[in-house]
């Protein structure tokens, strides 16, 4: 270890001996939310159409990149351990929100096998907006997943077969060997079939929240809730920030 690193670590140790805080981030004056507000009359009665409207605005906002990026949260039962990761929303239909991934070896797959509830959180900083989605998950059919799988570049299709997502690797070379084996298996085949362990899940919501930041943290929040995924009627409420 270099002398510079030793001095840095010693300084950090001395600084933290009398405090448990490694990070302390008081609110800055420029962190207020000032660009918008939300009223009930601004909202579509259909939360899917409302989400689509906000998503289109996010897509067309200069400087806002990857509006489809979302945090998928799952929880394993009976322990209740929660895990979260960033994924991409790929589809929205009149039933719910669709993402694609490995549903065999991944942590989220393990969680969903014991608990089919999941949530999504979207954050669009440039619009000072957040959307939360909570609901029940269902797998798409292999035919539905194949339709999306065909749009991926070939390397990503090969990678889906090669990667045992979240399983431990001895080295990067081990993964590269698996990729070469899959490439050889599908050599000369343009249409690579979707792996049986890979595909789409749909989060069918029972709760969707639209959040618009406001000054002094007095945010506008509206929730759409329904008792069951089979209900067509949504209850709309303004809730406290």
UniProtKB/TrEMBL annotation:
Lineage top rank: taxon: Eukaryota
Family matches, as NCBIfam families: pdxH, PRK05679.1
GO biological process, one term: pyridoxine biosynthetic process
Domain Pyridoxine 5'-phosphate oxidase dimerisation C-terminal residue range list: 198-241
Keywords: Flavoprotein, FMN, Oxidoreductase
A UniProt-annotated Pfam family: PNPOx_N
Enzyme class label: oxidoreductase
Protein name: pyridoxal 5'-phosphate synthase
Domain Pyridoxamine 5'-phosphate oxidase N-terminal intervals: 65-184
PROSITE patterns: PYRIDOX_OXIDASE
EC number in record: 1.4.3.5
Pathway connected to this protein: Cofactor metabolism; pyridoxal 5'-phosphate salvage; pyridoxal 5'-phosphate from pyridoxine 5'-phosphate: step 1/1; Cofactor metabolism; pyridoxal 5'-phosphate salvage; pyridoxal 5'-phosphate from pyridoxamine 5'-phosphate: step 1/1
Cofactors demanded by this protein: FMN
GO molecular function annotation: FMN binding; pyridoxamine phosphate oxidase activity
């Amino acid at each position: 270890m270099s002398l510079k690193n030793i001095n840095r670590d010693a300084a950090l140790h001395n600084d933290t001996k009398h405090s448990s805080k490694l990070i302390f981030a008081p609110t800055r004056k420029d962190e207020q939310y000032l660009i918008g507000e939300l009223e009930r009359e601004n909202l579509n009665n259909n939360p899917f159409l409302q989400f689509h409207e906000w998503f289109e605005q996010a897509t067309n906002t200069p400087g806002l990149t990857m509006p489809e990026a979302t945090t998928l949260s799952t929880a394993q039962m009976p322990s209740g351990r929660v895990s979260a990761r960033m994924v991409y929303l790929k589809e929205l239909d009149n039933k719910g929100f669709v993402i694609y991934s490995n549903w065999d070896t991944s942590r989220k797959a393990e969680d969903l096998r014991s608990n089919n509830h999941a949530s999504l959180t979207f954050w669009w900083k440039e619009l000072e907006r957040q959307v939360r989605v909570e609901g029940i998950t269902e797998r798409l059919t292999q035919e539905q997943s194949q339709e999306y799988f065909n749009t991926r570049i070939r390397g990503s299709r090969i990678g889906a077969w090669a990667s045992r997502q979240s399983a431990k690797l001895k080295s990067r070379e081990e993964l590269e060997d698996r990729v070469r084996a899959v490439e050889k298996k599908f050599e000369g085949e343009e249409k690579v079939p979707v792996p049986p362990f890979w595909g789409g899940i749909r989060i069918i919501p029972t709760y969707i929240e639209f959040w618009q930041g406001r000054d002094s943290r007095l945010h506008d929040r509206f929730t759409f809730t329904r008792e069951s995924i089979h209900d067509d009627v949504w209850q709309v409420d303004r809730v406290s920030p």
